[in-house]
Amino acid sequence: MLSATVLIPAHNEEGLIGELVHACLDQPYPLDEVIVVADACTDATAARAREAGARVVEVHYQDKATSQNEVLGSIQSDVIIGFDGDTKPEPDCIELMMEDLNERGYDATCSTILPMQPRGFFIRARRFSYALGRRWWRLCQAQVGCIQVLTGASYAFKTSVIKSVGGFPSGLISADMDATWAMHAAGYKLGYTAKAVALTVDPETFTVWRAQMRRWASGYAQNMAKYRRQILRPSALLVVGTAVFDLFSLFWGYAFVIYAIATGHAHTLFGVYMVFFVAHIVLNITLVATVVGAREALLGFVPWFFINFYTRWLYIAALLREWVLGRHYASWTGRQGRATVITPMTARRKVVLSSVAAALATTAAIFSPYVA
Amino acid sequence: MYGHPPHTGIGSLVLTLVASAKGGIGFLVRVIAHAQHAH
After folding, report:
1. Number of domains chain B is built from
2. How far does chain A reach from its first CA to its final CA, in angstroms?
3. Which residues in A lie closer than 8 A to residue B28 (C-beta atoms)?
């Protein structure tokens, strides 16, 4: 049986950290220890964690990956179980993840995440989205051997595996995705322990939600750029390709619906599309209901449906900004309210993009008389 | 979510078809039939 240590990076989490440490220590799976890395905390996070029974290491990096690497070398257990400081595992969460590592031969896995808060527009939308992932596409990703991200909020990595990829990677805005793809690149077997559940604090207001989504979207773009060679593997191409296709196709789909309704054309195609659309909605709600119950599925559908449009726009905007403009999201934002920092475009890229724009404008000017 | 774009639409169906082809009937049964209430 593999031994395990819990590692919790935390920044100003005095309200929840004690409860989280107790939730870990109360798990039936035996733990070597619970370590809390209190990073640049200005509150009583360290004291609350010590009182609850954790070993506390205080650092001042203001960086999650670096603070985890601070203690990585000292961990002798076979497995590192990681939780965010604002996350709380359900009573069997660790046992279920360890079961997958012990019996299914995974090198790393993560649990399902659900919002801790009971209600709210953004909370219900997020609960619907997480539940849909738990019941549908994350299972599919795992089945084809390419889980896109082992969530940093609740994971289990073999210690030797994370050490072999150089520790917890820092530098990109989405560190858990970076670690996931580093492990994919190294050929490790990554899984998804769907039945294991951890509850996390999700954004409740538009401002905080938007800051988090912009960070996630930018982190996705940064990771896909960093691991572009890995995306050429068939399973990765399938998973990333279908996600990016869905990202853009939503807008084409609704543009077609508006066109069909406005002009009265394309009756047959419109009918087929509407059947697909309704079937998709029914399937989504049904699958989500099996995770969080029918009431939450029905209450969550409308917020999720409408937020989906803006979410996708944020992803598209991030892909264009990161890949085309070369302006990189560099700050760590979220509930802590830190300012967003986006790097400026380099002089070289300005010259290249200006040249491309000038060439396109010139070409259009030359050929437009012939087209007309 | 979970940090990557929402997997909903025709792409998600394609992914499901490939996963089902790889995992067989058992995979589909696990996805659709086994209700696992988290709460």
Report:
1. 1
2. 75
3. none
